[in-house]
Amino acid sequence: MKHKSRAAIRNLALAVVGVAFLQWSFDGVRRLAKINPFESFRNVATDLEPQFTVRLEDTDFRHYHGAVLDARATVDRIDVLHDERTADLHGIKAGRLVREGRTYLFDAAEANYVSSNAMLNVRRDAHFVGPDFDLRTAQLVFEGTGEVLDIKTPVSGKFRKGDLIASKFRYVVPTGYFKASHVDYTGPIDLESELGQGNGVKRTSWNFKCDDVEQSRTDKDVLIYSKGQASDGEIIISAPHFELNKKTDVVTATGGVKYFSGKTNVLADKATIYRKEKRAILESHVQMLVKPKKDEDQPPKVEEIPPFTPSVPDAIQVGRPVPPDRKVEEQKKRDEEIRSGKSVRDYPMVVVCDRIEYFYEKGKRHANITGSPQARQELPDNAWRYAWAHSAKYDGEAETMLLLNSGGEKKDVRLKNSIGDDLVAIQILLSTKEDDDYFKASKPEGVSYIIDDEDLRDKKKPPVDTKKPPPDFNGKIGG
């Protein structure tokens, strides 16, 4: 009995000691948790500003989220604020943030870092690198929790494999949404192989300049531009509003479109460029300048298109300008040039219509022109050529233009010039080749005026007496 009593007393004593030790340990841990690790550094520097608690110099700054190292940098100086969550950093090098498996690198002259939401606020000389950007700017804010980059000072650098210059830039990394202002961007667009085999990638580089660009919130492949201009080296297109679908490589422009290429310049209300198909559709109030042969191999450039007012055929007054000192033979030679198709490619031509669908791939160039197209060509000495049709087809490889009527046997295809030649037909096929005089008309009717010596001697005599019936169709018409 005595042995059992001693054992019981010993166990009771151990239990009391254990409880006391646990209480002491708990109090110790609680006191340890209240210890400020910066207490020994507090107010060491006499020049420390009141809002700061601690100043550290030549430091390797690190911040952990749980057991994960999510921020670090080598800094010349750290000033810790009283809230002990905000660090003011100076001379930042080899900065590194990790969010959701994505790594961001940065350097800066001055910044502060808020640990509660992983926010980096750069105040001077920022260089910030992310998964698909490498940017330099004076100031930026990166909110690490949502991975939102917000820049409100001029910025330049790489973005999505292209070169970016902008006055403002905002980017939400997880969703891909971005918006930028006063943008100049040049970069490639990844396209599937045009062979449709899916085993190759074609890169097309565009240059975009605009007031604003924003990625669509509903389709990450669509970019929306305002007051912009785009060029891929083959064409230049500008409009108040246009969209680029990066996946399909289609540009849609509206609101008053200007389209420039080596061969043509066009104005229209709307333009849709299918880059994969090398096809352009121009719609509504279309006005096109076809450049002369000597200028068509030049790079595209922004320039004015000569004004053109559509006219009904009979509204054009015929009147051959005859310089006072021009001789009969010279005038006859000049008239022959106006009639001849050989000079069609020597002078610019302006065309108006409702719609042009143009396929511009080399070897397959052709166009469908609809909506009562009209064409006017100005020649030296106020001479001109004019054409009307219901529709037309242009073959860029054969270099021919087919003018079509409105149906049946209607002869509403018409050619007219400043000499007085006037021809109507069911359809007319013209050659647009240089020095090619080919011309074919279906059931033509018309008149042609032949100059003689008397016409030039009597300057007061009008070239056409409209009070008399026109003579029978004769002579060379339009080449």
Q: What do you see in this structure?
A:
- This protein has 479 residues and is mainly beta.
- Helices cover 10% and strands 49% of the residues.
- It is built from three helices and 30 strands.
- The chain has a ten-stranded antiparallel β-barrel.
- A hairpin with a 4-residue loop joins strand 8 and strand 9.
- The termini are far apart.
- Residues 31-35, 190-201, 455-462 and 464-479 have low confidence and may be disordered.
List the helices and strands and how they pair.
Elements: H1 2-33, E1 52-65, E2 68-81, E3 86-99, E4 102-114, E5 119-124, E6 126-130, E7 133-137, E8 140-143, E9 148-151, E10 155-159, E11 162-166, E12 168-172, E13 177-192, E14 201-215, E15 222-231, E16 235-245, E17 250-261, E18 264-274, E19 279-290, H2 328-339, E20 349-359, E21 366-370, E22 374-378, E23 384-388, E24 391-395, E25 400-404, E26 413-417, E27 422-425, E28 427-431, E29 439-441, E30 445-447, H3 453-457
Antiparallel strand pairs: 1-2, 2-3, 3-4, 4-5, 4-6, 5-8, 6-7, 7-10, 8-9, 9-12, 10-11, 11-13, 12-13, 13-14, 14-15, 15-16, 16-17, 17-18, 18-19, 19-20, 20-21, 20-22, 21-24, 22-23, 23-26, 24-25, 25-28, 26-27, 27-30, 28-29
The overall strand count is 30
Structural class from helices and strands?
A: mainly beta
The main β sheet shows up as: 10 strands, antiparallel, barrel
Sheet-strand content, in percent, reads: over 45%
**How many H/I helices?**
3
Which geometry do the CA atoms define? elongated
Mean pLDDT: 80
Q: Helicity, in percent?
A: 10-25%
CA-CA gap between termini: 140 Å
Radius of gyration: 39 Å
